[in-house]
Design goal:
This protein is α/β, with parallel strands linked by helices. It has helices spanning 55-62, 85-94, 102-105, 112-122, 127-140, 157-169, 187-203, 215-221, 239-244, 249-256, 297-301; strands at residues 6-20, 26-40, 44-48, 70-75, 78-79, 95-98, 175-179, 207-211, 224-229, 232-238, 307-308, 314-315. A hairpin with a 2-residue loop joins β9 (224-229) and β10 (232-238). α4 (112-122) packs parallel to α6, α5 packs across α6 and α6 runs parallel beside α7. The protein is globular and about 65 Å long. The structure holds iron/sulfur cluster.
């Protein structure tokens, strides 16, 4: 059940990286540029956008494993930057991440049982408790407890992602942040892992952030979806509203690229033009204007603000005000 209180809240997060562009100069890449969001208790919040839009950086900041340049993160109403040592440890145990690549997520020299138990060990659980919980979680994710002494290279990609999921869940976290958890897996395995994650979410009463470039995946599992473009949120709303009546031309283009799906309200025959630019190359106005089929003079000069309707559907586009 989704509660009306946010378990995690981000306010105006900013994160930039220096990247080399030419032999003698560096440029600043604004990976996350003024992002605010709320993850409600019990909610599955999807984050979508092209590769390089800042999704993964945002995920790492939300999980507490990357520090933002500015902005604040609140966990159950408490400012994360002000948490004491034990409260911080509690947050880290209660907020787990599942990464895209199960091959690099696991230590190849560590038995999978030891890898899975690690968060419990960090939380200070006894050896007996670790062994009991290891059996329980391996069973829950469909792995035989008899395989706990094996090494990661003895498992397939799908099984490794089950191991990673088991490790994320063994300490009974409240929040799971899954960053493209199925995109490196065979199509035939993807549905199994998504179904497993959804079952785990239900069984463990998780609040979840699910990051994917695939809106069709998010459509089935998310309560709300955020659309990101060049480090910023351009649209957010209930999953059915985003898929059936999107309001931002970028969302429209993402949906238009999905075979068999069409939007109801805007011109659905609009594909994305050109490559994703860097944030530095869009110096004024709407960051989507160089690729937008609806660009007006106002779009080149004025930044559209993310404006929320009564239903909670928010969009950053001058067109939606017309
Ligand atoms: Fe397109 Fe203008 Fe809307 Fe930006 S503000 S998405 S350029 S119509």
């Amino acid at each position: 059940m989704i509660e009306s209180t946010p378990i995690l809240m981000a306010v105006d997060l900013q994160k930039s990286f220096r990247v080399s562009s030419t032999l003698h100069s560096n440029r600043l890449l604004r990976a996350v540029d003024g992002v605010s969001l709320q993850l409600m208790t019990g909610e599955t919040l999807g984050i979508a956008g092209e590769s390089g839009c800042g999704k993964s950086t945002l995920a790492k900041i939300a999980a507490g494993i990357m520090t933002p340049d500015s902005g604040e993160l609140f966990y159950k109403g408490e400012l994360l930057s002000k948490l004491g040592k034990s409260e911080w440890k509690n947050f880290r145990v209660n907020t787990q991440m599942i990464f895209q690549d199960p091959f690099s997520s696991l230590n190849p020299r560590m038995k999978i049982g030891d890898s899975i138990s690690e968060p419990l060990k960090i939380a200070g659980a006894s050896l007996t408790q670790q062994q009991i919980e290891l059996r329980r979680i391996m069973d829950a994710v469909g792995l035989s407890a008899n395989t706990a002494d094996r090494f990661p290279d003895e498992f397939s990609g799908g099984q490794r992602q089950r191991i990673v999921i088991a490790r994320a869940l063994i300490a009974s976290p409240e929040i799971v942040i899954a960053d493209e958890p199925v995109s490196s897996l065979d199509i035939s395995i993807q549905a199994q892992i998504i179904n497993l994650l959804m079952q785990m979410k239900k069984d463990f009463a998780l609040s979840m952030i699910f990051i994917s470039h695939n809106l069709m995946v998010l459509r089935h599992i998310c309560d709300r979806i955020i659309i990101m473009y060049l480090g910023a949120i351009v649209e957010v709303g209930r999953a059915e509203d985003i898929l059936n009546s999107c309001k931002h031309p970028y969302t429209e283009a993402l949906i238009a690229a999905i075979p068999g799906l069409q939007t109801n309200n805007l011109n659905s025959n609009k594909q994305l033009k050109g490559d994703l630019p860097t944030t530095n190359s869009v110096t004024s106005g709407c960051r989507f204007h160089p690729r937008c089929p609806y660009t007006m003079d106002k779009c080149r000069n004025e930044i559209p603000l993310l404006t929320e309707s009564k239903t909670g559907h928010a969009v950053a586009c001058h067109l939606s005000c017309i």
